[in-house]
Design goal:
Number of helices: 10
Shape: globular
Oligomer: single chain
Distance between the termini: 50 Å
Radius of gyration: 19 Å
Strand content: under 5%
């Protein structure tokens, strides 16, 4: 870790993460390199290694930040709303993920690579936030559906979080993919993030 204040360290870490985020809007995970990320920052490429050893660690930090933003959004809503119906809870989760398309994109495409390519301390820091996201959703279930059985709540968590990994590929389809499915006569109904999430949550709550 470079010498200097903690504030400077965090500022530079955020600049690196922001540079990665900017590149990811136009390029794929495989196309992005540490060198390219360094070219978008205000300091030398070699300085990046003082903060992150691999591009996987940078992407994991970006994913961690996306989870934090999602958690914050959920908590703010649940603090303001005392009661929700099943439809309203499903809508809340659906809207919250609709606003975090980048979260869904990263987690669906490169999650395994990011975890295996990151040092233990970076992975542990990410898992803390991931765990908090699970607890936040569980808090919502406990608050709005106190009569729901424990097994039902556990089933919701163990189904909904794996489900999230598949949202992006099902809702963001390239023209090539769309054409291929049409030529293969695949009777596929294209859905938005909101639609697919709302339907999933409603079914889980009604089981």
């Amino acid at each position: 870790m470079p010498k200097g204040s903690q504030e400077l360290t965090e500022t530079r870490r955020e600049e690196i993460i922001n540079a990665c985020e900017k590149l990811y809007q136009a390029k794929s995970f495989k196309e992005i390199t540490i060198k390219e990320i360094g070219n978008v920052t205000s300091f030398t490429r070699t300085s990046i290694y003082n903060y992150f050893q691999t591009k996987e660690e940078i992407f994991l930090a970006l994913l961690k930040r996306e989870y934090e933003l999602w958690i914050d959004s959920l908590k703010k809503t649940m603090e303001q709303v005392e009661e929700m119906t099943k439809d309203e809870f499903a809508s809340m989760l659906a809207h919250s993920l609709e606003e975090r398309a980048q979260l869904l994109k990263i987690m669906s495409m490169n999650h395994y690579d990011m975890e295996t390519g990151s040092r233990p301390e970076h992975l542990a820091a990410f898992k803390v936030v991931y765990g908090e996201s699970i607890r936040t959703v569980m808090t919502g279930l406990n608050k709005y559906f106190p009569d729901m059985e424990v097994s039902g709540k556990q089933n919701f968590i163990y189904t909904f979080f794996p489900f999230m990994f598949g949202i992006y590929p099902y809702t963001f389809v390239t023209e090539k993919q769309r054409t291929a499915m049409e030529e293969a006569n695949v009777n596929y109904v294209f859905m938005t993030i909101y639609e697919i999430t709302f339907n999933c949550v409603k079914r889980l709550l009604n089981e």
